[in-house]
Structure formats: C-alpha cells, structure tokens
C-alpha cells in the first residue's frame, strides 16, 4: 500500500478521469504517429545544447551529388517556366520521358526495387534546385517522393506488394497520386464519406473477398495522369466477412486507374500553376483485399499510416521548395537592388529598400538552416511529427513574406508578366504551399502546440494514457508515477524560469559558441518560460485548451521560434562560425526573440485564470516585452550580404539552378557581375563629375577598355530592367481577325455611331 498513491494521487486521478475529454481514434492515431526529437528538449525548459550540436550535419553521398550535377542540371536546362505556363500548360513530353528514365519518381525507393535509394536530404536538395527553375516541374518530381503510394508501400506494404509495385513506380511505368481530400473532407479528413464495403466479387475471372469502393476526390496532384491511385476511404464490413466489427475505419488501398468504374476528371488550375492536378471518382469499383496497402491486417489502420508518412513528407517537400524560394528571392532581389538606380544612386542604398531586403536575406538563412536540421533528423531515421508541422507552416508562411518583399523591391519589373519576369510565377504559386498538406491556419491554431504539448511534453502523454487505461488500478499506478514526476519537473521549471527571467538569462547554461553564446542563453531562458506557461495553461484549462485556438496558436509560435532559432545557431556553428554571416544570425535572433516576448505577453494577457496569469508575469516577464527587433546596424549589414559577389552570398544562396540562356535570371546574374566589376571605374567617373564614359576616356579619367566595360554593364542593366510586351492578338482572340487593335476600336466606334 502506498499512502501517496491512495490518499493523494487517487482523488486527483478520479477528478482528472472525469474532466479529461474523450479522444477520438483519429486524434489518438495522429498523436501516436511519428517521433519526438529536439522539440522534446525544448519542452523540458532546459534544452541540452550539446545534443543539438552533436547532430551530424546532413550531407550528400558522391552518388547523390553526381545526380544533382548531372540529371538535375540537365533537367533544369530543359525547363522554360514561361512556356510551361503560357504555351504548353504542362511539362513537355521530352521532360516527362526524361524524369521517368532518370528515375526522378523513384528517388526514395530502395535500390533493391529499382529506385535510387536517396536520403531525405538528397530528396530535399533535388526539389530545392528544380524549384528555382520551375514550380511545375518541382511539384511533379516532389509528389511521388512524398506522401503517396511509394512511401506507404515502403513502410507498410507486404513483400508481395513491394515487389510488384515499387519497381514500376521507380522507373515510371506507373505514375502515382494519392486521393485524400474530398469535397466533404478537407482539413477534417476523418469526415470523408468515401466508402469501401467488404463483399465478395469477381476479379480477373475469379470470385474473391474484396472491397466495393465509391469515392469522390479533388485537388489530387498528378491525378489527371496517374496510373496508380493511392486511395483513402472508410471501410465497412456489414456481413462480417473479415471480423466482428461493422465499421473498420480509414483504410488506404492501391487502385489501378484502368479498373472499371474509375473516372479521371478534368484538370484543376491551382493559382495558375500548371502541374497536373484534378478530381477523380470511383463508382462501384471492386478490388481484392490484397490491394489494401499492408493487406487484410491493415484494414482500418489507414489514418495512422497516413500520419506516420506525413510526419516525414511535410518536413521535406514544401520546406525545400520554400527555402529555395527564399534563397532565390534573396539572390535576385539583392542583384536587382544593386544594379537598379533611381535618383542617380543604386536603390540598394535606400534604407527603405534595405529593411525588406534584410528580411529576405535572414529568412533565406533561417529557412535553409531549419531545412538542413530537419533533414539531418530524417537522415538519422527520426520522423519528427511536430517539427514537420512547424516546418511546413513556417517555411511556407515565411516564403510568402520573402516573395512579397521581393515583389515590392522589384516594383514594375516583377509585376509585368512575360518570359523575362523571373519572380511572377513564384508569387502566384505561394498560395498553393499555404493551403496544401494541412492548411496553415489549422496547423498553427490546432496542430503545432496541440500535438506538441502532448507528444513532446516529458510526462503529459504518460498521464493521459494512464487516465484512459480501462484497468483502473493499473492506470492509477501509472498515473501516480508520471504525475509526481510532472510535479517535480514543474517546480524545477518554475525556479529555472524565475532565475533566468530576472537575470535576463545571464546564468543559463550555454555552449562555448563564440559571439553566439549569449543567444543560447536567451533561448534557454525562453524555453523555461515557455515550458512553465504551457504547464500552467494545461493545468488551469485542461482539455478546454484545445478549444482556445488563439492561445494554442501563440504557444505554437513560441515553440516554432525556439526550433527555428536553434536551427540557425546550429547552421552558424556547422559552417565554421562565418563572421560575415553573423549579421543574418543576429537578425534572426532579434526578430525571433521579439516574437517570443510578444507571444508571451499575449498569452499572459489572455489566460482565463487571471490569478495564475499575474503570478506567471511576475516570474517569466517581470519587466515586460523588451526586445525591439534587429537594430538598424544589423539591418544594414544583413542586406549588404547579397549586394556584392562574395563567399557569403554563395553560402546564403547555394545550388540554385543556373542555366546559361537569355532568360531573366541569367540576364540578371550577368548584369550583376558586370556592375560589381565596374564599381571602381564608376566611382572615378562620379568623382570627376563625368557621366559619359567616352568623355571620361577623352579626359584620361578612365581607359578605353574600362569605358567599354562600363558600356557592357550599362547594356546588360538595360536588358534586365526591360519588361515584356505583347501584340494585342497574342493576348486575346478578339483582335486576331484584324491584327490591329487601333483598327478594331475604330471599326467598333463606327458601328456604334451607325447604330
């Protein structure tokens, strides 16, 4: 007999069982999917920095690097985003043949099944490079290697299924897609009405037990061209042919699209992006049970399978595209600001331009840092579900800000569409990333903290499992053990948060990281404050916290900042503490600290239990939110990282697609190099108050060769700032009969006058 358990814990246990809200099967399966990793350290309130710094950086094998330098570069050279969008509305046939032949669709499939067997980091690098050349091509390559039949077969398929389907997926004989979203069920996938009824039927001339399927799916990427559809549906067994239950739950199966009853719809046009996407239907489609991924034993386990696969996929595909978009925005916007002059000076000298340019630069630095750290976890076999949600949410949101800033700085150059506009299509594509793979609004308000508070917390999941145990005595014993550890942990966190907040983190543990050491101390301080406030919110609100979405979102923002800032510190350390890059790190830390302090203030201002809120404020924020963000000095230094050719600029924007053609990006790169190379010559002319280079040559200020360099630079800049225009008949069929817009309107006016 235990006095503590029976006299103290037991009443708490009984009360908690009564107030704990019921957890649906889909909620439980989502919580159990994937792993916890560095997010668990952050939730302790006392992160072990040595653990983070010991994580091996993600690297490429020689074979993976050769693929990037070979087939990926060759593919990029085949792509013309304007023609893909404006003329073809699709990838050209030679590109489809190339990506199949070179096994772009089989990057993650093991070599034993004919795939390339690449690491998550290699997958990420491939998507990253292609996306800086063509969004349509990047999405086409990305989807088969993310959530879909290949990933699910590798994780859950039977040996027979793997041997049958994986080689066909690897070499492109089959093009896969995955049908999850339906008109009735978007973010709430559990509400899908697509059904599979277990019954007997004829299949390939024999009677077998199988499923009769009826479904309607939409927004399915690669759906219009897919030959193999991964399908999520709810399985039912009314005649109890496989068991005693009527409702088996969400199930996933493979559906060859040539089966009777399968209908492939017309194409969607998502934000004017022309990657293949569209709806499909199934009417009384019969499949045998061995088409269920994992076979009969996996009936009803589809949601957990999907969540497990998504835990990895959400950490690779869209974060890679987003990191690439931010890096591309940094490189192009820095170059354009450098070469574009207004009022006789480069617009890069305007502080109004420096501020958004610095934001782009630091965003590019941080997103790629977080992408690499997440890939390092994935390379090690970890599937961090909460971190993948953070990555998808914040990578796409921050790409949106970076691209908007780039558009603002470019002005009319980026607004006028045409072959020379290297930013417009990226800007149009941003909403796609915001909405797919879990809408950002719901990810922020419900998932990041809602899932993280249970999965990453050191004791909460153990307590919840104990409370839900059908065996009351066993549950009480488990709860007693976890609860008192939780109490001890909370008390230690309170003392830690108090000491670090009142001392501004001066005595928090930190590694010897040179100039970055103080940043580790501040992160440790904020981690303790976050952990304490999260515990108190859970204690005072209980299950009601998940309905307080704005509070949950603010906690999620803090957790996200803690992870993203950890990644930035890790990158600076891994790259050898490059002094030139420190301004980008400073910008990230100052902005992140400001966000954390503001979110803490908002949480304390809105926590329903006002007594607890006042006590917490005295502990974690006694002096209020004090961080103002990056200083003007940091903004200036950060913006300057992309204004001159340098090693720092290359580190910030590595491995983008560089194709030596006459496209807008190639023109910009050439002009940037020429302008930077003639800077000293231009300064001598300005000092002599001479504008025409020929006059400067005549007066001996510069040489003839230097004058010709200036002329070449001026010509290159002129080509960059040009924008596209089109003949009226090229844009509208209205004018095709006359071929002359003026004549068209003259005739129209005469007709109106006559009438």
Automatic annotation (TrEMBL):
GO terms for molecular function: oxidoreductase activity. InterPro entries: Acyl-CoA_dehydrogenase, Acyl-CoA_Oxase/DH_mid-dom, Acyl-CoA_Oxase/DH_mid-dom_sf, AcylCo_DH-like_C, AcylCo_DH/oxidase_C, AcylCoA_DH/ox_N, AcylCoA_DH/ox_N_sf, AcylCoA_DH/oxidase_NM_dom_sf. Keywords: FAD, Flavoprotein, Oxidoreductase. The keyword Ribosomal protein does not apply. Residues 300-447 form the Acyl-CoA dehydrogenase/oxidase C-terminal domain. The keyword Ribosomal protein does not apply. SUPFAM superfamilies: Acyl-CoA dehydrogenase C-terminal domain-like, Acyl-CoA dehydrogenase NM domain-like. It is an enzyme of class 1 (oxidoreductase). It catalyses: a medium-chain 2,3-saturated fatty acyl-CoA + oxidized [electron-transfer flavoprotein] + H(+) = a medium-chain (2E)-enoyl-CoA + reduced [electron-transfer flavoprotein]; a long-chain 2,3-saturated fatty acyl-CoA + oxidized [electron-transfer flavoprotein] + H(+) = a long-chain (2E)-enoyl-CoA + reduced [electron-transfer flavoprotein]. Its EC number is 1.3.8.7, 1.3.8.8. Its cofactor is FAD. Belongs to the acyl-CoA dehydrogenase family. NCBIfam families: PRK09463.1, PRK13026.1. This is Acyl-coenzyme A dehydrogenase.
């Amino acid at each position: 007999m235990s006095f503590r358990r029976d006299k103290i814990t037991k009443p708490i246990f009984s009360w908690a069982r009564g107030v704990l809200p019921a957890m649906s099967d889909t909620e439980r399966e989502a919580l159990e999917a994937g792993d916890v990793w560095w997010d668990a350290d952050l939730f302790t309130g006392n992160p072990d920095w040595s653990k983070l710094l010991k994580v091996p950086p993600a690297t490429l094998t020689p074979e993976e690097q050769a693929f990037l330098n070979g087939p990926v570069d060759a593919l990029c050279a085949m792509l013309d985003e304007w023609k893909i969008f404006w003329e073809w509305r699709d990838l050209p046939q030679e590109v489809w043949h190339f990506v199949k032949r070179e096994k772009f669709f089989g990057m993650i499939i093991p070599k034993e099944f004919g795939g390339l067997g690449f690491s998550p980091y290699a997958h990420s690098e491939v998507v990253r490079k292609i996306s800086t050349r063509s969004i349509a091509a990047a999405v086409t390559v990305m989807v088969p290697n993310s959530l879909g039949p290949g990933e699910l077969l590798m994780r859950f398929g039977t040996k027979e299924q793997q041997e049958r389907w994986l080689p066909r997926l690897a070499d492109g004989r089959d093009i896969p897609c995955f049908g999850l979203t339906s008109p009735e069920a978007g973010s709430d996938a559990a509400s899908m009405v697509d059904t599979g009824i277990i019954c007997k039927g004829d299949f390939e001339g024999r009677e077998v037990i199988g499923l009769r399927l009826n479904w309607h799916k939409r927004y399915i990427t690669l759906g219009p061209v897919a030959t193999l559809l991964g399908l999520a549906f709810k399985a039912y067994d009314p005649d109890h042919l496989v068991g005693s239950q009527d409702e088996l739950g969400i199930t996933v199966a493979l559906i060859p699209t040539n089966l009777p009853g399968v209908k492939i719809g017309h194409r969607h046009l998502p934000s004017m992006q022309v990657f293949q996407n569209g709806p499909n239907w199934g009417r009384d489609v019969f499949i045998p049970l061995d088409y269920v991924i994992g076979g009969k034993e996996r009936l009803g386990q589809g949601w957990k399978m999907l969540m497990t696969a998504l835990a990895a996929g959400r950490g690779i595909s869209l974060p890679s595209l987003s990191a690439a978009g931010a890096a591309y925005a940094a490189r192009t916007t820095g170059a354009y600001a450098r070469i574009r002059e207004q009022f006789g000076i480069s617009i890069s000298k305007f502080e109004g331009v420096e501020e958004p340019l610095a934001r782009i630069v630091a965003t590019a630095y941080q997103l790629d840092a977080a992408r690499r750290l997440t890939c390092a976890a994935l390379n090690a076999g970890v599937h961090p579900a909460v971190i993948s949600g953070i990555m998808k949410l914040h990578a796409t949101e921050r790409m949106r800000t970076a691209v908007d800033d780039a558009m603002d700085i470019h002005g009319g150059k980026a607004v006028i569409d045409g072959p020379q506009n290297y930013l417009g299509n990226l800007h149009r594509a941003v909403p796609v990333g915001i909405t797919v793979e879990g809408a950002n609004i719901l990810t922020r308000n419900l998932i990041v903290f809602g899932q993280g508070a249970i999965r990453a917390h050191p004791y909460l999941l153990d307590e919840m499992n104990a409370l839900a145990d059908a065996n009351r005595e066993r549950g009480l014993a488990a709860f007693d053990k976890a609860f008192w550890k939780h109490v001890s942990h909370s008390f230690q966190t309170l003392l830690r948060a108090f000491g670090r907040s009142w001392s501004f983190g001066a005595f928090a543990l930190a590694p010897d990281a040179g100039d970055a050491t103080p940043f580790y101390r501040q992160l440790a301080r904020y981690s303790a404050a976050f952990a304490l406030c999260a515990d108190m919110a859970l204690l005072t609100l209980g299950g009601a916290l998940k309905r307080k979405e704005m509070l949950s979102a603010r906690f999620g923002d803090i957790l996200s900042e803690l992870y993203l800032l950890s990644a930035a510190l890790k990158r600076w350390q891994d790259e050898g503490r490059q002094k030139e890059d420190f301004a980008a790190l400073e910008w990230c830390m100052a902005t992140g600290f400001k966000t954390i302090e503001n979110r803490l203030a908002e949480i304390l201002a809105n926590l329903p239990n006002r007594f607890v809120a006042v006590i917490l404020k005295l502990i974690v924020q006694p002096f209020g939110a004090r961080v103002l963000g990056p200083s003007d000095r940091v903004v200036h230094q950060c913006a300057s990282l992309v204004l001159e050719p340098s090693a720092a600029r290359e580190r910030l924007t590595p491995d983008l697609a560089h194709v030596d053609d006459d496209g807008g990006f190639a023109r910009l790169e050439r002009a940037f190099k020429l302008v930077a190379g003639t800077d000293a010559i231009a300064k001598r002319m300005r000092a002599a108050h001479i504008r025409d280079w020929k006059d400067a040559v005549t007066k001996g200020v510069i040489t003839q060769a230097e004058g010709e360099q200036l002329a070449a630079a001026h010509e290159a800049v002129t080509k960059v700032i040009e924008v596209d225009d089109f003949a009226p008949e090229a844009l509208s069929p209205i004018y095709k009969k006359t071929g002359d817009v003026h004549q068209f309107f003259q005739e129209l006016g005469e007709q109106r006058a006559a009438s």
